[in-house]
Design goal:
about 450 residues; alpha+beta; 4-stranded antiparallel β-sheet
């Protein structure tokens, strides 16, 4: 099948884009036109708002928006909004929240909230000469040049925290960085940070050009490669934890409290030392984190990238959560690097994001960091609890049962039949099909 490239696609109307796609790629099938149209919002103003969130929009892609209640976090009770398509995520989080609610709940600590960005540049100059120039001339100029950009942020208590010169010439010829740390208060701060960094690049070039310490040959060698924030924020980190006496670790799976605690700790230790397990372990954590990140209008791609980079910070990919058993006390915690905002972006535009933030009591960025870390910890606790007791498939496949049945257009009566049928069995795709055929052939 050969298709023709299109010119000016972004300039077409929404219907024009759809017509071109359906005719060029889908043989003019009207069914696909109807699929796109049925997800448009009937409120034209609201639909226009959604259309303008992105580029070349032709419809809305819905995700289930669920609630995980009963989260006791730092003495306050929360119901967490979760935008996620995997039903077991919300169920596991809710179950974990209920488990810990009468054991003191979740405790959190903001360890740091610094965000980072870099001006990456190439400069063929002796490192000591550049360091002297940075310390005695450039750093002050960089701060002065960004005063207008940082004025509002400084009024809110944030701004540029520090700027350092980083010598990377041992890894790449003539490569240096201006590494800046920022406090962006309640905003994620991407635009703010990037604006500051772009000004750094301009100021660096200007100041080198007029500095008498460098030869003309050295000045000509300066190349600003890029100015960009880093989504790796190891100094913007929150800790969430739970703890209780082992004797209070009551579990309905039939194993003793002591065995449960021991097996749970072994499972975490395996994830700490085995990257194959750690990858799935941390994916489960991010199931919980991302669901709340999306519901609150934040960037889950940045969240994912940062968490996984942090998990590999020591040269080997490892667990984000940790567990100890000391003097009869079970303790389970996560240190999560995460950068989020509660102002800017979609937070003031998307109606469901507004709802989510209102539901959470209009948290500050730091409070939202705490909530996200708790969501990840709860999700991981729920997954490990199943893994070391009944196994993951029993609960997971029961949650997946309706998805299987919906593929075969099951009626409500058929769905209720299967809920009863699998009450004491493990759901499997094959058995659902076989039993459904028997049921329909009666």
């Amino acid at each position: 099948m050969n298709h023709k490239p299109v010119e000016g696609f972004s300039k077409l109307t929404k219907q024009g884009k759809i017509d071109w796609l359906v005719n060029e790629y889908l043989e003019g099938n009207e069914e696909y036109q109807n699929i796109l149209n049925q997800y448009w919002n009937e409120n034209t103003d609201l639909q226009k708002l959604h259309d303008e969130f992105s580029e070349n929009t032709i419809s809305n892609f819905y995700m289930p928006y669920g609630i995980a209640p009963n989260f006791l976090i730092d003495g306050k009770l929360f119901a967490l909004p979760m935008a996620v398509e995997e039903s077991s995520v919300v169920a596991a989080a809710s179950k974990a929240a209920k488990f810990w609610i009468d054991k003191g709940g979740f405790k959190t600590t903001i360890i740091n909230n610094e965000k980072l960005g870099h001006t990456h540049f190439i400069f063929n100059v002796e490192a000591h000469k550049l360091l002297h120039f940075f310390n005695f001339k450039l750093k002050k100029k960089l701060l002065e040049a960004t005063e207008d950009i940082t004025a509002n942020m400084r009024k809110r208590g944030g701004g540029i925290l520090d700027i350092k010169l980083v010598d990377k010439t041992s890894e790449m010829a003539n490569y240096y960085q201006l590494k800046a740390s920022f406090d962006t208060v309640d905003s994620m701060g991407a635009n703010f940070i990037n604006s500051c960094l772009e000004q750094f690049g301009k100021t660096l070039k200007q100041e080198v050009a007029v500095c008498e310490d460098f030869s003309q040959e050295e000045k000509n060698s300066l190349q600003i490669v890029m100015n960009i924030l880093s989504n790796f924020t190891p100094d913007c980190i929150v800790r969430a934890e739970v703890s209780c006496k082992i004797e209070d670790l009551k579990d309905d799976s039939g194993i003793s409290n002591e065995e449960f605690a021991w097996k749970f700790k072994q499972a975490v230790t395996i994830a700490e030392i085995e990257p194959f397990r750690a990858t799935t372990h941390n994916k489960g954590i991010m199931n919980g984190v991302d669901a709340v990140v999306i519901a609150t209008g934040n960037d889950f791609r940045a969240t994912e990238a940062c968490a996984h980079a942090y998990a590999a910070r020591n040269g080997k990919y490892s667990s984000l959560t940790h567990c100890t058993i000391d003097n009869g006390i079970f303790r389970f915690w996560i240190d999560l690097p995460i950068s989020v905002g509660v102002v800017g972006g979609l937070t003031n535009l998307h109606p469901l994001v507004k709802f989510s933030l209102a539901l959470l009591g209009k948290p500050s960025a730091q409070e939202l960091m705490s909530i996200l870390a708790v969501s990840g910890l709860a999700q991981n606790f729920g997954a490990l609890r199943s893994l070391v007791t009944t196994g993951i498939q029993k609960g997971h496949m029961k949650m997946h049962l309706f998805n299987i049945l919906n593929q075969f257009n099951a009626t409500e009566e058929e769905k209720q039949y299967f809920v009863t049928y699998f009450k004491d069995k493990t759901v499997s795709h094959h058995e659902v099909i076989v039993e459904l055929e028997k049921l329909r052939n009666k």
